Amino acid sequence: MSDQNQKNTSRPNTVFAIPSSRQGINAVHVNAAREMVRLHTAGRNPPSRQPQPQQQPQPPSLSTSSTFPKVSIPLHHDETECKNPQCMHCGQIIIPSPQSSFPIQDKPSISVNDWSVYTAKRPILNSVELDGLAESKRFEFPLPEMIFGNNFVRVVHKDGGMIEFNALNALDSLDCESQLKVSYHEEWLKSRKSKERQKRVDSNGGTSKSRDLSEFMNDDDLKPYDWTYSTNYRGSVSKFDTPKSADKEIPIEKLTRPDPILFFDESILFEDELADNGISLLSYKIRVMPTCLLLLCRFFLRIDNVIFRIRDTRLFIDFETNELIREYKVQEDSYNNVLTKTHSKDPKKLLRDPNWHVFHYASMAHNNHFFFEQLTNAEDAALTKPSRFLMEKLMHQDVLDVHQLREKMLNLAENSYGQGWIFLVETSDKKLKFLNCMNDGTPYTYLKSHLLDLNGGINESNYQFLETMKQKALNDEKDYNLPILAINYWDYMYINDYGVTGKSEYLSKLWDHINWNVVNKRLFQL
């Protein structure tokens, strides 16, 4: 029996091929990339809860009291069903959808009371779609370089009223001609005419000698048009019985309340760089709160050395009263007048400054190094504690123990919008202070700390902060800080491990890994 087992387990002498010396992609790297994509996709889903056996599955909706508006994903989509998941905790629509494929073909939507919002975000029009527009002869002028003709935002009332913003309808509202001209306007216009003539020649037989091409050689064959694409678009309205309060102003106090944002989306409708003479851009942004909706459709124009122009259409809807307010505002000024109101009359100066250009990367690299330097495993961190000297200085900030310090810093990070850092710093007068540095702000100097947060709206304190910053910018920097402890609340720190809504769980576990020996030494650094 033993001899038979040895015969069965013996392996034949096989000659294996020697691998090639050429280096390819390591399979480990490929698997790691796939795993990262999977974690990133899964992290966008809200944390799932196991349902009780006796409970019946419910459609995604926000459970609220009787006074809270009814929030849900529309069950009957006008084109295709919305596949964007809805957070079971706050009702927010998650964009982009984890099921989206490249290119992104999201069609997120939401319903609040009697109103539904639909949006679509697709790539720019391809050659086939552009040829179809040319054959339809809808536009008798050269179109913008980039048209997102399939993008739209649509607000629908249950009675059938609708207002929509899209690129093609916006281009229908252009004026016949623009009086704005650049330095080589004539040469640029002739090049556009040549392209138009060539298209007509190609569509009528190319270089056929039997064809009289004189009609295509006329310099006036291209009709005058607004080459800046300055649209007067205020939206496409149909079947609206809801009264439009033209004399009323949008209630700013209702928009600045800290209400949760259930739905947010933004997209570009068209864009043109005006032959490198500036930019012409039409875009929209929309945010939906439990009690109201605000939509902004903005046209922005910049012609170098000529003009700045902004045309805004704002749409406000009150879900409680069904009141609709549409506001149209035009702002424009000469290029030179706008520059005189800036700190520097040379707007490209910062782009030529290597120190400013690399600030973002240098600051983020330093902040991350400073943050990870103070971390260790939980077992070693439990053996360390803040020094007595540090705790005595914290008492002046009404922080009496480590637990209060933990609550103070983690609450600051938890209640902060966007991305950033919470720093405990020692000021130039040897006092401790907490700083909330937004994005890539650094705690060392006042003007680079990025302390102003505009995510919650602009109020009087924001204006006072800007005025203080302006006065300090005119003088030499005197406020130097020494960072001691840092909390990183950028989403890349927790989204892969805890998901989109895992910020609180990440922060609570982060505190258990702080090495206080490193923090104590920082207090005595020069």
Automatic annotation (TrEMBL):
It comes from the Eukaryota. Pfam families: Sod_Fe_C (PF02777), TIP41 (PF04176). Residues 1-13 have a biased composition (Polar residues). Residues 464-522 form the Manganese/iron superoxide dismutase C-terminal domain. Residues 1-70, 195-215 are annotated as: Disordered. Residues 48-60 have a biased composition (Pro residues). One of its GO terms (molecular function) is superoxide dismutase activity. Gene3D superfamilies: Iron/manganese superoxide dismutase, C-terminal domain. One of its GO terms (biological process) is TOR signaling. GO terms for cellular component: cytosol. SUPFAM superfamilies: Fe,Mn superoxide dismutase (SOD), C-terminal domain (SSF54719). PANTHER family: GAF/PUTATIVE CYTOSKELETAL PROTEIN, TIP41-LIKE PROTEIN. Belongs to the TIP41 family. This is Manganese/iron superoxide dismutase C-terminal domain-containing protein. It comes from Candida maltosa (strain Xu316) (Yeast).
